[in-house]
Input
Amino acid sequence: MVAKLPEEEHPKVAFGRAARDQSGVSSTFKFSRRATGEKDVSFKVLYRELAWKCRHEIVGMVTEVGSKVETFKVGDRGGVGCMVGSCRFCDNCTNDLESYCQQMILTYATKCYDGTITYGGYSDIMVADEHFVVCIPDNLPLDATAPLLCAGITVYSPLKYYGLDKPGFHIGIVGLGGLGHMAVKFAKAMGAKVTVISTSPNKKQEAIERLGADSFLVV
Output
């Protein structure tokens, strides 16, 4: 049996860019997305963060919803982070820890339920199960929201999970890169005292004057 080409796997034609070899150089890529299922949300991709391999942190405008979708309608703003599926029945899934599910389906380069591969969000359209699509409020700019769907949740989640999301804590943030600067902003917004720990003395001004850290420690 001859394998189908990426653009023949599903009914929705999609256009994007992809790296085809180890050089990492991207080029135009024609592929396809599945039809909008009864619990699916389809949206036009408007922004995506140029993150690791350019495949996730995707936001846009909803263009179609399945017959059993409850939280989205056409015209809403939505986004997808690093994952688009899980078993939904294991202990992790039933405790809102889907990212630990043994059958987790990443947004990119992962085999989906039907055996095809997820192609990420560096494209013009996206289709995902409603459970893994995030509602984006109107007061958040879409371009600034995209990084929150991976880098943002990576640092927000432990602050929330371990009860550090309230005043009175002194939190150390190691590094001031893509995740670190968000951790500083979240921790300060939660009322914590923040010390940035870094090997780069030249980041002190940014940490304190721009991001609001209370102190800066060079190691």
